[in-house]
Amino acid sequence: xxxxxxGKNIRLTDSMRALAHExxxxxxxxxxxxxxxxxxxxxxxxxxxxxxxxxxxxxxxxGQVLRADxxxxxxx
Length: 76
Fold this sequence. Notes:
The chain has a 4-stranded mixed β-sheet, with helices on one face. It is built from 1 helix and 4 strands; from the N terminus they run E-H-E-E-E. It has about 80 residues and is mostly beta strands.
C-alpha cells in the first residue's frame, strides 16, 4: 500500500505523518486490496475553532474509491 500525506494551509510535522502511517498500517488486517491511501490535512479559517482542522483520507480498494473525513480542533 502506498501512502501519500499532504497538507493544505498547514505545515505537516513528522509526528502528523507518522500518526497517519501508523493508523493506515492497521487497515490491511481487514482489507488486503488497498493499493493507494492519500491523507490530506487542512485548516479552514472561516469555521469555528472546534472543527476547523480537517483530515481527509481517500483510498483505492479493488478499483473503487473510498473516502472519509474528520474534523477537530487539533489534529495532532
